[in-house]
Every structure is written in C-alpha cells, then in structure tokens.
C-alpha cells in the first residue's frame, strides 16, 4: 500500500483553497503537507490521529493544523464497506504563510494572527460559541466567489479564532514530526518508515476489538518485537501498549456518547478483558471515569 506522506494540493487561482469533501470514507493515509488546514467534520465518525494525539471524531469536530503536522482521520470500519451506504463529508480550508504576500502575516497588526499560526503547529481544537461561529463562517466562505470580500471573510474568520479563549492544544508541547518535510524520496528510510506506521495504524484499527499480540503487529511492521517497541516509541512519543489503549478508549467514548450499551458491555466491545482494567485505562486517558464522562457529555448537551 502506498502512503500519501507529504501531500501536494492542487493549485488554485485564489489565495486559499476551500473545498467540501464528500467520500465513502476520509483519506486513510497518515500524511502531512506544507499548508495550514482548518477542517470541519460534517458527517462521519472514526478516530483522528494528529501528531501524538489519538481521539474519536464525529460530526462537528473542528481542528486547525499547522504545516507538516502529520494527521489522519480514520473512518470507522463500516465506512469501508461499499454496501453500507455510509459516507463522510467535511469542509476544509487550506492556506500558506505567503497566501496574501510574503510578509503579510509579519506586519505589526498581525500579531494575534501570528500567534494563532504558531499555536496551530501543535494542532488546535475549539468548542462552544467559537466552534459554532467558525462552522457557520466556513460554510459562508465556501459559497462566496473568489473576490476581495472573500479575502475579508477569510481574515475575519482567522481573527475570530485568534481571539478565542476556548481553544485546546491537540499534541504535546514536545511533539516533533519524525520525518523531514523535505524528504519525499520514494525509497528513503523515512518514507519507508511512514508506510510501516500506516500498516500498524491499519492493523490496530482493524483488530483493536480482539487481543493484539506484539509478535503479530511486529511482523506487520517487519521488525522483531523488541525492535518494534523501540521504533514505535521513537516515532510516536508513546509506547505501543499506550497507543492501543488510546484507540480502545476512543472507541469506548463514541459508544458512551452514541449507544445505549452498558459500561460493562462497552468495556468488552472496546477490546478490554476486565472491567477494572477498562476503568483504570479510561481514567488515565480521559481524566474521568466512564460514569463521569457520561455525565459530562449529558451536562454539555
């Protein structure tokens, strides 16, 4: 399977790209690109991987990513079944540092926008009023013709985000893309490494309901178990065990939010073998017990 790695976007006659994405599933490849990206999920569920962060996503998920920050919105498995009738839909804005001129964002008046662009290199998400206002602004921007007013709408959107106080960072402060952005050689070590990570992602997301043996996933990566553990920790800033646990907890969060299953049923449906381990891992990842998580979602809605 060929991984997208560094993705090149099509050229545009405007200063930035606004597109609606409608597909059976989102791009399943772990990749990055030199553009800033503001992305709103409007339809579809799954797990999003951004840098060293793993979280479930669903309609309304809104994030901004800086250049060369690796990411993947992995749709849930039913979306890959061509007979399911399911689809994903999202709205995305791509732009670069020099989209309005080489020094535009370096002028003194742009200090807030520069801070937003810098913060986005860790990935940012929003909730509450900022989220709703941004989603509406993105939909309006999509419908506007490529003229001066569209540029003003774009800057107004960025200005709103730059002054919001309900943002959250997505990656850890010390996360660094382990692949050099300029390294796109098809046979380079880092390109092969990304393909290896893509294979691991796919394997775990397909088998997390079951017992995952280290020997099997190491074989998928083409490494010995000990070499794979060292390799995975270097590439992701977390252990493979923690990675699997976060994927399972992400699935459990979706079930707690969108199903009538009991906590015990969700525990086993998410790949855990004991309720005590599920509760312990859930609290480690989310900072809450499953019951507290359900209450917080109920209170929010």
From TrEMBL:
Transmembrane spans: none
Keyword Transmembrane: no
Domain HTH araC/xylS-type residues, every copy: 198-296
Molecular-function GO terms, alphabetical: DNA-binding transcription factor activity; sequence-specific DNA binding
CDD domains, A to Z: cupin_MtlR-like_N
Classification via PANTHER family: ARAC-FAMILY TRANSCRIPTIONAL REGULATOR, TRANSCRIPTIONAL REGULATOR MTLR
Protein known as: Transcriptional regulator, AraC family
């Amino acid at each position: 399977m060929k991984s997208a790695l560094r993705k090149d976007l099509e050229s545009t006659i405007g200063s930035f790209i606004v597109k609606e994405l409608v597909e059976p599933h989102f791009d399943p490849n772990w990749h990055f690109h030199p553009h800033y990206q503001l992305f709103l999920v409007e339809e579809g569920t799954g797990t999003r991987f951004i840098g060293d962060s793993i979280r479930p996503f669903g309609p309304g998920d809104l994030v901004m990513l800086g250049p060369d920050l690796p990411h993947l919105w992995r749709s849930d498995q039913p979306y890959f079944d061509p007979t399911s009738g399911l689809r994903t839909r999202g709205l995305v804005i791509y732009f670069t540092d020099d989209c309005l001129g080489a020094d535009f964002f370096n002028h003194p008046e742009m200090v807030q926008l520069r801070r937003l662009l810098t913060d986005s290199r860790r990935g940012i998400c929003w909730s509450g009023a900022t989220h709703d206002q941004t989603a509406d602004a993105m939909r309006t921007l999509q419908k506007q013709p490529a003229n001066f007013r569209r540029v003003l709408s774009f800057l107004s959107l960025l200005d709103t985000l730059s002054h919001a106080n309900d943002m959250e960072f997505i990656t850890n402060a010390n996360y660094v893309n382990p692949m050099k952005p300029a390294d796109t050689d098809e046979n380079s070590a880092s390109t092969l490494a990304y393909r290896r990570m893509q294979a691991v992602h796919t394997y775990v997301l397909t088998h997390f309901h079951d017992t995952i043996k280290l020997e099997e996933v190491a074989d998928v990566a083409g490494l010995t178990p000990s070499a794979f553990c060292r390799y995975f920790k270097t590439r992701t800033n977390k252990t493979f065990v923690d990675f699997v646990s976060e994927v399972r907890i992400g699935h459990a969060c979706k079930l707690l939010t969108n199903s009538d299953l009991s906590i015990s049923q969700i525990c086993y449906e998410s790949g855990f073998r004991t309720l005590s381990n599920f509760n312990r891992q859930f609290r480690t990842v989310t900072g809450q017990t499953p019951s507290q998580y359900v209450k917080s979602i109920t209170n929010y809605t």
